[in-house]
Amino acid sequence: MLVRASARSSAIIFLTAFAAPGVASLRWGMGSAWLGRNASPIFLAFGFSHFVHLVALVLWASLFPGSFFANLRLPAVIAGAVLYLFIGFMCIRVFLKPLGRREWAEAVDGVGRFLLWLAFTLAYVRRALSGALYGFLGLLAVASLALRLAPRLAHAKQASDVV
Ligand code: HEM
Questions:
Q1: Is the pTM of this model over 0.85?
Q2: Which sequence spans correspond to the domains of the chain?
Q3: Cα 57 to averaged position of ligand 1 atoms, centre (Å)
């Protein structure tokens, strides 16, 4: 089903963009440098993939409203809508970044990035034992955080070695 497929492609692309700065700082070769340079276009690809998720949801709701609304919970819809606002903001910011950086926009970006990571992680880690694909996606979510934080962890270790 397109709703699930687009959520899965979105998860893979988002988690790649999320891990990219950390992977680049590990200097694993040309691939990791490429990833670091292209984190923004990869995020835009996630934006497109998640737009497909939205289109699939609208199609499902219009063609089969009975099955669509049967399991829909209002809090989940509100949370999803808020995340879409973050995604829209973050995609627009990719284009506006060259015009200058704003501290508040960076902060919104950071919150959005964390909430998106949390949404995918909760969705897939919870179901990690129910199938190989869910297991892979859950693992990818956890690994992406470790990779993202790798430079900070290395920095903290260096600092503690010096002391
Ligand atoms: C108002 C907005 C949204 C609505 C109404 C919505 C609705 C849905 C529905 C109905 C499903 C299919 C559930 C199933 O049959 O298993 C689904 C799957 C999913 N959605 Fe969304 N969604 C929204 C936004 C989002 C956002 C913003 C994210 C992530 C940041 C997201 C991530 C997912 C994930 C991870 C799945 C599970 C796919 C799988 O089983 O592999 N959704 N969504």
A1: yes
A2: 2-162
A3: 9
